[in-house]
Design a protein that fits this description.
Ribosomal Protein S5, domain 2; 8 strands; alpha+beta; two-stranded antiparallel ribbon
Length: 177
């Protein structure tokens, strides 16, 4: 495989036959889950990733009392690759979640201060990634899916301090303009 990769590189091609500057086709479908506050499916070449956003009310962290909480989880579905076994997320899924979390935070894609509700209450944003098909560019596809799902997310309505599921209040304006 190493020799083949070098040979293709010498020809100005990638091992899948694309040119060095060619990219995979990208397709993004919004709102693929009726149960999520926001969701997206990203197809990048033959890689497929679904992201769903759910919100819940939590107590803030002591060191950030006026900021909401972002939690990113990732899971490789057993159908994504013959090498993936059923069960809890493995070290690859945990690392993917960390990378996507870091990219979202460090790019300031989401403003955690806007997740403040009142003293002692903040929104926790859960971004759940499910890799359906693993054919390369997993990080890129996962970040795109997560950001698109966040972009589409809506805040659930609150009544008497409790979430009214299925009653979406407003578009989730978390992005820096």
């Amino acid at each position: 495989m190493k020799e083949y990769a070098k040979e293709m590189l010498d020809k100005g091609k990638r091992i899948d036959g694309r040119g060095l500057l060619d990219y995979r086709n990208i397709e993004i479908v919004s709102n693929v889950s009726s149960k999520a506050e926001g969701s997206a499916l990203v197809k990048m070449g033959n890689t497929k990733v679904v992201a769903g956003v759910k919100l819940d009310i939590s107590e803030p962290f002591e060191d950030a009392p006026n900021e909401g909480i972002l939690v990113v989880n990732a899971e490789f579905s057993p159908i994504s690759s013959p090498n993936v076994e059923p069960g809890p997320p493995d070290e690859n899924a945990i690392e993917l979640a960390r990378i996507v979390d870091r990219i979202i935070r460090e790019s300031h894609t989401i403003e955690l201060e806007k997740l403040f509700i009142e003293e002692g209450k903040v929104w926790t944003v859960f971004v759940d990634l499910t890799i359906l098909d693993m054919k390369g560019n997993i990080i890129d596809a996962s970040v795109l899916a997560a950001v698109k799902a966040l972009w589409n997310a809506k805040i659930p309505k609150l009544e008497n301090g409790k979430i009214v599921r299925g009653s979406l209040f407003q578009i989730f304006q978390l992005f820096i303009s």
